[in-house]
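Subject: Protein entry, chain in single-letter code together with its fold tokens

Area: Proteins and the way their chains fold up in space.

Attached in line: The record itself begins immediately under this heading.
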Amino acid sequence: VLIIGPPDTLYEGGVFKAHLTFPKDYPLRPPKMKFITEIWHPNVDKNGDVCISILHEPGEDKYGYEKPEERWLPIHTVETIMISVISMLADPNGDSPANVDAAKEWREDRNGEFKRKVARCVRKSQETAFE
């Protein structure tokens, strides 16, 4: 899939490639999403794996961060996943980061180092979007 960076965010203008991998028992279990294009974001780990509630296995969260209704439900679609990912780009969840370094920069230096790293990723995504 291609994710276009949402307007009025640091990711605006970015063209980010990602893979959605569906398990055999989809839609009972969620797909996995991984950015192929480098992206600097608190909810995307350094390998590109997306960490948002909607992609987490159904049921109780053993860490207590998420309510069961925030996690995967078989009624979700590719469209609801994409909407959630675009929302994640616009409004990161710093309370439950997959990339602790990005989360720290987002909290402490959003308009400095964090913004510079995101801008570099956006430029790189534009250069490699159609390769």
